[in-house]
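Example for tutorial group B:
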């Protein structure tokens, strides 16, 4: 059998791995093309470098093929000789299903990741472009439009996306180069989901009109990231003026500011405490809460956060 020359994706991942502060990686493995590629890539690197790799499959239970997908992931991981775990999550209701699945999926990943491990996902450039448009349509600000990073923190765990600047075409090349086995999730073609609608109905039309769309959007994302980094480096100094000793918002102090300052402070306060990016519409709801006399009930709930007003403070709790 002829030995294949290592694909360029392996070099991309290896160079990034060498810069990290861990040797342990937990691969989020759906069994689809992208996660199959990143898992195979890390396995190949682990045979040359001192890194430990294990995999985890999150079973969303969204269709009657879910058990088949879980079994496939377990079998592939066994063939690689690595530890593997399957976690089943339950998502209630049908409204905002994508967001609910994302929250529960990351919660499961974080809960099953040790403090010295990185969670690795197979997100690539096309995923990034889709995320930009999704957040644009949801009214996200600078932080939201800076999209996904190669490395970011989520609830004290590190999310590592080594392929986030890599075009999908290179992943397609890799899967054929090594003839990898993967599964096609039937929910990935269901356009009732926003991301799939963008992927299959909208972005192909845009790309036909604007050939360099990915490059231009990537540049725009980078601009947003520059502003986001500046905010991140300086926000603690500004936030401290409006917080009590328990990091609650002091309403009477913040209300003295102009509206644009209030909106930014509330947005950054929520993000610092929860890693959740609220829209301007949601932040405006918090401004209304600041002006209400109702202190008895949770007045704002979204994703994993609950915000209440208690006399002169706004308090945020995670649930």
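The residue assignment follows.
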């Amino acid at each position: 059998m002829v030995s294949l020359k290592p694909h360029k994706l392996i070099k991309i991942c290896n160079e990034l791995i060498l810069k990290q502060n861990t040797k342990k990686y937990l691969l989020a493995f759906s069994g689809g093309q992208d996660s199959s590629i990143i898992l195979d890539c890390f396995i190949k690197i682990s045979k040359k470098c001192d890194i430990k790799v294990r995999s985890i499959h999150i079973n969303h239970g969204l269709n009657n093929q879910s058990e088949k997908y879980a079994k496939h992931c377990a079998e592939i991981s066994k063939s690689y000789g690595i530890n593997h775990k399957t976690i089943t999550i339950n998502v209630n209701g049908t409204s905002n299903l994508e967001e609910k699945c994302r929250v529960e999926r990351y919660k499961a990943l974080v809960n099953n990741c040790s403090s010295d491990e990185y969670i690795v996902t197979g997100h690539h450039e096309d995923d990034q472009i889709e995320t930009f448009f999704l957040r644009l349509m949801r009214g996200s600000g600078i932080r939201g439009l800076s999209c996904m990073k190669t490395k970011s923190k989520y609830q004290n765990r590190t999310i590592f996306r080594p392929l986030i600047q890599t075009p999908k075409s290179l992943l397609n090349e890799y899967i054929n180069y090594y003839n990898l086995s993967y599964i096609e999730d039937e929910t990935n073609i269901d356009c009732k989901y926003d991301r799939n609608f963008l992927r299959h109905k909208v972005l192909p039309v845009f790309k036909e009109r604007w050939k360099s769309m990915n490059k231009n959007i990537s540049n725009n994302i980078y601009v947003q990231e520059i502003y986001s980094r500046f905010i991140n480096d300086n926000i603690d100094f500004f936030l401290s003026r409006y917080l009590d000793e328990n990091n609650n918002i002091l309403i009477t102090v913040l209300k003295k500011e102009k509206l644009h300052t209030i909106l930014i402070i509330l947005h950054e306060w929520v993000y610092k405490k929860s890693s959740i990016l609220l829209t301007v519409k949601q932040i405006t709801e918090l401004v209304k809460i600041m002006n209400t006399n109702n202190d008895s009930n949770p007045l704002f709930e979204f994703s994993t956060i609950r915000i209440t007003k208690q006399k002169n403070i706004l308090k945020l709790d995670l649930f």
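The beta strands are 24-28, 52-59, 84-88, 117-120, 151-154, 157-160, 249-250, 300-302, 305-310, 313-318. Compare this with the pattern of hydrophobic and polar residues in the output above.
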